[in-house]
Amino acid sequence: MWSVDEHLGDILAAVAPLEPIELQLPEAQGCVLVEDVTVPVALPPFDNSSMDGYAVRVADVAGASEEFPAVLTVIGDVAAGAGGLPEVGPGQAARIMTGAPLPPGAEAVVPVEWTDGGTGGGAAGSMRPASAAPEGAAGEVRVHRAAEARAHVRERGSDVTAGELALAAGTVLGPPQIGLLAAIGRGTVRVRPRPRVVVLSTGSELAQPGEPLAEGQIYDSNSFALAAAARDAGALAFRVPAVADDAESLRSAIEDQLIRADLIVTTGGVSVGAYDVVKEALTADGEVDFRKLAMQPGKPQGFGMIGPDHIPLLALPGNPVSSYVSFELFVRPAIRALMGLADRPDLARPTVRAALAGERTLSSPEGRRQFLRGTYDAGSGTVTPVGGSGSHLIGALAHADALLVVPEEVTAVEPGTELDVVLLG
Predict the structure, then answer these.
(1) Is residue 304 within 8 Å of 400, Cβ to Cβ?
(2) 408 and 294 Cβ atoms separated by less than 8 Å
(3) What's the first-to-final CA gap in the chain, in angstroms?
(4) Is residue 186 very low, low, confident or very high in pLDDT (cuts 50, 70, 90)?
């Protein structure tokens, strides 16, 4: 039998990162940058106001108070996006909006709450809308507090400066990174695309959820779970309806999917039964190697490169827990490697050490690395088993957020013993 580490090593040695392409920003989310991105223009590109208020000269509001306000002549409005800015001279102020450029002559911004808003009354809570009260851009304003130079002014380049590194190659593009690229004017970016993963269940006993079950049938849960897991790993997932236990039908279904696949994942039909058609269909040409791993669940596994473009195919067992555990151990790292993340610590799920909670001693088969389902408590540093060791117990799997890893040489785990725990997120 092969070890878990040997099988994973063979997969990662064969899987190469996808070729880079240029994508529009909305399509680049979740992809990995392949080049450094530098800032072409400073952010913000000009001094601008961080408040709604009045742009003033510092000397004009020195010593201002509610009892003795500074009375300034309002010379106009400066809105965000405005051009042709008015120049603020001695004794003058310009009404300014958040994000608007600081007009020449102005040295600070006083918030509207520090003024009477041009009403001649007490402290203003807000400005009157320009459309409803255009006269607010003229007349006088009383300022009740002094302001220091550059108060409430966002300086040009205070976020990023021109020529600065915005994002380094290898960055995974999430919403904040997409926002930064848009802010510096990048409409497209060069990335490794998200892998296209085709998930295909096999078995004549499988029915689609929502359809009535015939005698001897069960619902196909694996393809739904694994397609969701592929998306969670960063891939674009395509789920194919279950294929019956017929080798020729399976070969045809896989060949049809090669055109849109960067990775194919099958589930079921990899053991030693008379109807294990994945093994039958894919062994003949020698492209897929089927082996037994020293693990539980998930002993039977297959891996190979198929088709003229050598698309990687991972053949997983059919029991729900076996297929999901196999996905986390082998398929998820393969997806991340296709994305160009083979050297990253998040290639696989994070692993922590935790003490076994409860009062029951766990048993494990000698020579097998066992993966049990559990719930992890970060506060206490403990992990509690959920359900039993059966590979069909999908109900227990749905309530687990971790895998307890029992090493090959360990046959019994006492409560309080520390184990490696894979966090499923």
Answers:
(1) no
(2) yes
(3) 30
(4) very high
